Amino acid sequence: MKVVVTGGAGFIGANLCRTLVAEPEVQEVVALDDLSTGSRQNLAGLDQVSIVEGSILDAALLDELFHGADAVVHLAARPSVARSLADPMASHLTNATGTMEVLEAARRRGGVQVVVASSSSVYGANPALPKREDLATMPVSPYAAGKLAAEAASLAYGRSFDLPVLAFRFFNVFGPLQASDHAYAAVVPAFVASALRHDPLPVHGDGRQTRDFTYVGNVAAVLAEAVVRHVTYPGPVNLAFGTRVSLLDLIELLEQVVGRPLPRIHTESRAGDVRDSQADQTRFRELFPGIEPVSLEEGLRATVAWFLGNS
Known about the structure:
Blueprint: E1 2-6, H1 11-20, E2 28-33, E3 49-53, H2 59-66, E4 71-74, H3 81-86, H4 88-108, E5 113-119, H5 142-161, E6 165-170, E7 173-174, H6 187-197, E8 201-204, E9 210-211, E10 214-215, H7 216-228, E11 237-239, E12 245-246, H8 247-258, E13 264-267, H9 282-287, H10 296-309
Parallel strand pairs: 1-2, 1-4, 2-3, 4-5, 5-6, 6-11, 7-10, 8-13
Antiparallel strand pairs: 9-12
């Protein structure tokens, strides 16, 4: 089978490409990326992957790449809540309009399966825990609103045009290849990079906010299985394992991994940040019963090892 990965040179995309080329059912992998946040270096050594530099807003290019494709894993996005607050329209154009372009191209090609990356940020201000997919969505940032629009469009195409779709809500994915060298870095790479530089760890707010951290290897395994088994579902699906860890607990665990105390510096809470996040995994477990999660400690050790090997 042929699989196209939009955002294929990015953090999750490149990890997915590595997983896909090891699947015996997959003969061809195409990574489409505009390289705005991704990097060709992320795919170094993967000669089986065709790298195409381009935009998901280019309809003609999508038509060309989707020809003969069995599945598209749509990961291309303008990431970061903070970045969306700085430029809401750019976030919407990529995350919402770009997803529509991908869906339309899949429809024009006769109904290619589309697996879409949504986000736990769509739950937003809804305080209920754990986060069930049937809860009311209450986005508190342009990024979250764009991801909700992308998810809703995908599910609507499934119902309107019988397009085979699967929309995952990702929860705080972390692991190797995740960038730390910019102002919008996610919390795990920001913490790891600071720890290895012997700098204080930057903590926004009191650090008691909680997250359901998900190791990227697990995410890649689920996405690969979704396309190989052609899994679809008419509603959104949480992709996480139901853990709830505060940032202060994360720091304590990272201290165990690096073997020394880690100073931290607290700053103001960030606009658009969600206080608590934890996935209900009932729906996910029904669809993917065989996936066993990598523990947070094991994932942190792998992440630190990758940072040390690439510093």
